[in-house]
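chain and backbone:
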Amino acid sequence: MTTKEQEIKALEQIKKIVKRLGEGSYVGTAFEGCFEIAEENIRNDFGCSMKQKLQSASAEVKHLKANVQRLTSTLGEAQDTIKRLEAKLEKEQEWRDYEMKGNVSQSDYNKLTEQADTHYMTDDEAKDILYNWYGFAKEKVAIRNSIPKLQISRHRAIRQMGRIDRLPAYNATDWNYIRFDCGRISYELYNGDLKFFEW
């Protein structure tokens, strides 16, 4: 039986032979990784081969694929369960459309805008009214062209579900609508009446 020293010398000779074949040789390519495995075998008294490593890697890949399939199936089942529970919770909470009581209702806004002589204002036109009627500095006013669409549950929880268009509209000095912010305060001007906007 050969000694480790003899094995190491034989390995070095094989390395030299392969090296002389030049970079990119067929034999050199086939030996890629083999020398390292041989050195580990000698150093650690192993009997491992490239074929065994390939088989082990293939088995590991197969095992990982099986785990991925199992986890994918489990995830799908969990997502289905979540959807069912969410639907059940949604039904139990009995969500319905909701408007803050102090704000202008959508029906009142619609009555204004449905009149033939009502027109939508530009932001600049709305700012002119706010300045001329109430003295709001135009550069500090932000016209808001929509309001939050709210829903309320049977437990009195409130959530926002998108937005509702609320363009500034004008019919007369006592029939109009502007939703705007000035600084950190939110307002509604409705029919010449200025009030805070709640949300």
